[in-house]
TrEMBL record:
Organism: Paenibacillus plantiphilus
The protein's name: HTH-type transcriptional activator mta
InterPro entries cross-referenced by the UniProt entry: DNA-bd_dom_put_sf, MerR-type_HTH_dom, MerR_fam, TipA-like_antibiotic-bd, TipAS_dom
Taxonomy of the source species: Bacteria, Bacillati, Bacillota, Bacilli, Bacillales
Domain of life of the source: Bacteria
Annotated SMART domains: HTH_MERR (SM00422)
Domain HTH merR-type: start-end pairs: 1-69
Keywords, comma-separated and alphabetical: Activator, DNA-binding, Transcription, Transcription regulation
The keyword Metal-binding belongs to this UniProt entry's keyword annotation: no
Gene3D superfamilies: 1.10.1660.10, Antibiotic binding domain of TipA-like multidrug resistance regulators
SUPFAM superfamilies, per the entry: Antibiotic binding domain of TipA-like multidrug resistance regulators, Putative DNA-binding domain
Length: 246
């Protein structure tokens, strides 16, 4: 199949397929004398794997390492994809249920506890791992993932609950000046929590705060705890980083 045919079949852009070829992730089985890329069935199977990994938010660099490893087992990878996607579906189902409950709560039809308002949110995983790796390298992300992977499900849930509680606390402080003692005490707790999961320098911490505002996906998730929280956290994190450089 030619590149345009593959793009139309899969639903990705021709430019994406060209990029995969350029970085050595997905090289066409044949290139004609006139320069046309021709993709084989094996290429399509590999592309399927790549897109499954992308659905799980893995960066292209890591996907390339995985699929090029001699020990790569396609069947085992498919089983893993299925398990992780089922987990993702379960989380989305719980979030949808939370939305339905919140609509009823907003209309005054049911009561809703604070805990119920955040069912389905999972801050124990970073859905924007690619951006974190690209901006600050692999160390903090890998250490964070390794520490989370070493936790039991109970410990992971406890960490998620702790993060939710801290987001809620910071939301209650968002009307204070970012440099105030109250705000700085709260943001220090955030810095300490992140460093229990990974290894964030003050520069990385400040950069992460900026991403909370620059990336609308972060902003939307964080501001669910209180409008303007992402902006407040960015400013408070910048003050904390600059003040503690020594």
């Amino acid at each position: 199949m030619k590149v345009k045919e593959v793009a139309d079949l899969v639903g990705v852009s021709v430019r994406t397929l060209h990029h995969y070829d350029e970085i050595g992730l997905l090289t066409p089985g044949e290139i004609t004398d006139t320069g046309y890329r021709l993709y084989s069935n094996d290429n399509l199977e590999l592309l399927q794997q790549i897109l499954f990994f992308r659905e799980l938010d893995l960066p292209l660099k890591q996907i390339k390492e995985i699929v090029n490893d001699e020990s790569f087992d396609r069947e085992a990878a498919l089983s893993m994809h299925r398990r992780l996607l089922l987990e993702k579906r379960d989380r989305l189902d719980r979030m949808i249920a939370t939305i339905d409950k919140t609509l009823l709560y907003t209309r005054g039809e049911i009561a809703m506890t604070n805990k119920e308002k955040f069912e389905g949110f999972d801050f124990s995983r970073n859905p924007y791992e690619q951006e974190a790796r690209e901006r600050w390298g692999d160390r903090a992300v890998d250490e964070s993932n390794a520490r989370l992977a070493g936790m039991s499900k109970g410990q992971q849930q406890a960490m998620s609950d702790e993060m939710t509680a801290l987001y809620t606390k910071l939301a209650s402080l968002r009307h204070h000046a970012p440099a105030s003692s109250e705000a700085q005490a709260g943001i220090k707790e955030w810095y300490d929590m992140l460093n229990r999961m990974g290894c964030y320098s003050l520069d990385a911490f400040k950069g992460l705060g900026q991403m909370y505002v620059d990336d609308e996906r972060f902003t939307k998730n964080i501001d669910k705890f209180g409008e303007g929280l992402a902006l407040f956290m960015r400013d408070a994190m910048a003050v904390y980083a600059d003040h503690n450089r020594g």
